[in-house]
Write a structure and sequence with these properties.
This protein has one domain: Beta Barrel (OB fold (Dihydrolipoamide Acetyltransferase, E2P)). It is elongated. A 5-stranded mixed β-barrel has the order 1-2-3-6-5. It has a two-stranded antiparallel ribbon with strand order 4-7. It is an alpha+beta fold and 166 residues long. The mean pLDDT is 91. It is built from 5 helices and 7 strands; from the N terminus they run H-H-E-E-E-E-H-E-E-H-E-H.
Length: 166
């Protein structure tokens, strides 16, 4: 009887952590961007069942943008430009999320997603093309080759991070 009670309690989410189906909740969802935190992090108006919050923090898959000021450290070079571009393309707009089934969240429990802007462009692709992000090779994903190509092209053109300007 105890085993059955434990199984029922676990399936109800009463033990350890509730079961959350991130793929069902986010993959393919069209969502409103409430705010852009930095070049590669957004907050969208979709409840986060894992954290019991009304919004969800989204981390862009496969790129790394310079960090904006926090914890007493200054902005990294090009962080403001990445933030401005992300805001211009996504803030207050509807975007579409696409998840990678093998890894729906990062180590900070943010949802990892490819974000498609209203104009059809991928947000990560726009940041890479402008030289405001690096392709992050640590985890493979379906657009990794494309992201690497965009970074190489921005490097060759001397855009953003790859320019001689600080």
């Amino acid at each position: 009887m105890l085993v059955i009670a434990l199984i029922i309690a676990d399936r109800q989410g009463w033990l350890i952590a509730p079961a959350v189906d991130d793929l069902n909740a986010y993959d393919g969802a069209a969502v409103l961007v409430e705010r852009v935190i930095d070049g590669d992090t957004l907050v969208v108006m979709l409840p986060d069942a894992l954290h019991g919050e009304l919004t969800t923090t989204i981390r862009l898959w496969g790129i790394d943008c310079p960090e904006t000021a926090r914890f007493g450290s200054p902005d990294e070079p090009w962080a403001r430009e990445a933030l401005i571009l992300a805001r211009d393309l996504a803030d207050g707009r509807i975007v579409r999320l696409t998840l990678e089934p093998h890894r729906p969240r990062d180590s900070f429990d943010r949802v990892l997603a490819h974000v498609q802007c209203a104009d059809g462009r991928g947000l990560a692709e726009a940041l890479l093309d402008a030289g405001l992000a690096r392709a992050d090779p640590r985890w493979r994903h379906r657009l990794a080759g494309r992201y690497e190509q965009l970074e190489v092209a921005a490097r060759r053109r001397g855009e953003g991070l790859w320019s001689s300007d600080p």
